[in-house]
Amino acid sequence: MNQHLKELIELSRIDKELDSFAPQIEAAEKKVAKEAKKVEAAQSRIDTLRQQIEESKDKIASYEEQITSLSEQLQDIQKKGKEISTEKEMKALQIEEEIAKEKLTFANEEIERLNKVIETKTALLEEAEEELKKLQEALDAARADADQELQAIEKEKEGLYKAREEIIRKMDQKILSFYEKIRKWAGNTAVVPVRKQACYGCYLKISDKTYSDVIRGEEIVTCPHCGRILYLEETETAQEA
Q1: Of 12, 108, 109, 211, which cross-links 191 as Cys (Cβ 3.0–4.6 Å)?
Q2: How far apart (Å, rounded) are the C-alpha atoms in residues 154 and 21?
Q3: What's the pLDDT tens digit per position in 196-231?
């Protein structure tokens, strides 16, 4: 087999291996992203619960101010009651007192309700914080696994890059350029085997003459249909023999 063709086959093999790491890297990153999304959702829920608790506390403070004001108003009404001289003034004062008492009752009821809301939200917050802790641990573990996997991949890639550089250093640059042009559109199928007299890039049958040239392996032969570089595998060579 032509030495240039051997180099192209080996270069193609290395490029395939290098590109095969992409799905592994993507899968590792997806695992981390999935766990990170869970942590983000849990943190968002915690932030919402905290905000709801603070809002309830603010409302309680507002109602407490109203209670103080209403209590003072009722005290004033009692003082005014001792000074009234007409029935009309008495009725007006009674209405004012009833309204103040209704507001006071409502404020106390709202404080009681809001305290229950805070109690419920606080319990949910504690659960959410515990869940967040577990999710964060899962995220840290996923990151550690991904880092370990990515480091192993990088180590393998380094070896392959060195081997690639060694081949490229020895190769005829015109042939390398020709290979790279094909690889731009064919990707990892720039160099493909011929099986049963068919190109295993486009899967179309090649002519007897082209097939004969591939079998001889004396020069670089491309598929007349798709333009990929062709070669004959050892098993096919044995069968031809």
Answers
A1: 12
A2: 9
A3: 999 999 999 999 999 999 999 889 999 999 999 999
3-171 folds as Helix Hairpins (1.10.287)
- For the chain, strand residue ranges (E) read 191-195, 198-199, 221-222, 229-232
The length of the chain, given as a count of residues: 241
Mapping DSSP to helix (H, G, I), strand (E, B) and coil, where does residue 211 land?
helix
pLDDT digits (tens, 9 = 90+) for 12-71: 999 999 999 999 999 999 999 999 999 999 999 999 999 999 999 999 999 999 999 999
Distances (CA, A) of 75 to 88, 97, 109: 20, 10, 21
Q: Which of 194, 195, 201 is nearest to 228 (CA)?
A: 201
In degrees, rounded to 5, the angle at the alpha carbon of residue 136 between the alpha carbons of residues 134 and 138 is: 70
Question: Which residue ranges make up each domain of the chain?
Answer: 3-171, 174-240
**In angstroms, what CA-CA distances link 150 with 21, 64, 113, 135?**
9, 59, 53, 22
pTM for the model: 0.70
What sign for the dihedral angle of Cα 91, 96, 101, 103? positive
Place of tokens 């996997």: 149
| Average pLDDT over the chain, rounded to an integer | 93
Instruction: Reduce the DSSP state of residue 6 to 3 states and report it.
Output: helix
DSSP calls for 139-203: HHHHHHHHHHHHHHHHHHHHHHHHHHHHHHHHS-HHHHHHHHHHHHHHGGGSEEEEETTEETTT-
